Amino acid sequence: METELNNTAPTRSIEFKRRMIAGLLGYGAGNDKKIQNILADLSLGETNGSRNKSYNGFDMRKLRQALTGASADFPAPVLQVDRPEIMAFFYSKGGVGKTTICANLGVTLAMQGSRVLMIDGDPQASLSTMFDVDVEADIVTFGDAIDTINVSKRRFDLATAVISPVRGIKMDLIPADQRMVRTDIILGSTAYREKAVQKLFSENADFFKTYDFVLIDTAPSVTPLSFSIVAAADRIIAVVELAGMALKATNNLFAMVQELEEGAHRRVPITFVPNGLHGSKRYTADTLEVIRKKFSGKNLVNVSNTVIPEYAGLSRHAKISTNRTLMEAEPTSAAALKMIELAREMEYLAVTDQNVKQEA
Ligand SMILES: Nc1ncnc2c1ncn2[C@@H]1O[C@H](COP(=O)(O)OP(=O)(O)O)[C@@H](O)[C@H]1O
Ligand SMILES: [Mg+2]
C-alpha cells in the first residue's frame, strides 16, 4: 500500500534562485555575489533551458555542508547529530496557526537543506490535507503506527507510512485521518500512555537517524495522544495568536508540562511563537508585549524573536493552487522571509537541545 501511496503522492517543485539561497543561508541578499561564486565552485544547480540555474533543497544541503568546513563566517548552524530534534506543535486552542506554521517551517527547513520528517498527530488531518494527501483514501497513518505497537503489541516500521509530498526537498510526511480519534480513545485507557509515542520512536531509531528535524502537529487539546506526543518531544512549539484570550490556553500548557515533569521526570522546554502581528491592529503589538513580559526570565521557556505577521497569503495558499504552503508559492514574500528567520532560530534551539542531551 505504501508504494501505491508514494506513487500517487502529489509532487510540486521547489526551485529557487541565487538571491533566495543567500536569504535561506542567512547571508542576506546582499551577499549574492559571494553565493554565486560558491555555487559555481561546487557546480550545483540545474540549467533549465535559459542561462539561469534552478536549485533545490538537496543543493542547499551540499552547499551548507561545504560551507560549514570551508567558511569560517558561515552564519547558520548545521545539526551534526545521530538523532533528530523532535518538535511538537502544541497549544490547547485551535485556529491559532499551529498547522500553518508547522507546515511552512517544515518546508523552509527542508529548503535550507535539512532533512525533515513531518508527523500529523491531529485526527482532523489538516497538515495532511495541506500537503494534498487524500485523507478519505485507504492510507497508512500515524494512528496505525500507534495502534500496532499499543494494541497489537507488534513493532511498526515507520518508513512504511512515509510519503514525500513535495518534490525537490527532503521533507517526508506521516499522515493522519479521522480514524485517529479511536487511537486516541484506546490510548487513554492504556497504562503508560505517555510512553506510547516514545516507544514507537525508539523502536524506529535507525529510521529517525535519517532526519535532522521531526515536526509533529497535534490536536488543539490535551488528549492522551497529544500528551504522548509531547512526552516524546525535545521541545514544545506553542504558537500563540496575538489576540485577546491568547494567553488563557497557556494554563493548560503549563499544567501538562508539570504533569509530564512529575510523571516522566523531564521538563520539556517551551518556545512560544507569536503569530498574527498586524501594523494597524494595535492590540496585536500590545499582546506581544504582554507575552514577552510574562515569559521572560522563566526557566526553559522562551518567546521566539521571530514574530509571524498576519498575511493573507498564509491562508490563501492553504486552499488554492498546487503550492499549498506559502514557502512554495511565494518564497520571497515578507511573510516567507519571516519563516526563514524562524527556521534559523529553530536550528539554533535544536543545537542547544542537542547539547543538553549530550550532557545528560
Ligand atoms: N499569520 C497568519 N496570517 C493569516 N492567516 C493565518 C495566519 N496564521 C494562520 N492563518 C490562518 O488561520 C486559520 C487557522 O490556522 P491553522 O494553522 O489551521 O490553526 P490551528 O492549527 O492552530 O488550528 C487558517 O485558515 C490559516 O490559514
Ligand atoms: Mg491545526
TrEMBL record:
Domain AAA: from-to ranges: 85-264
Transmembrane regions: none
Protein name according to UniProt: AAA domain-containing protein
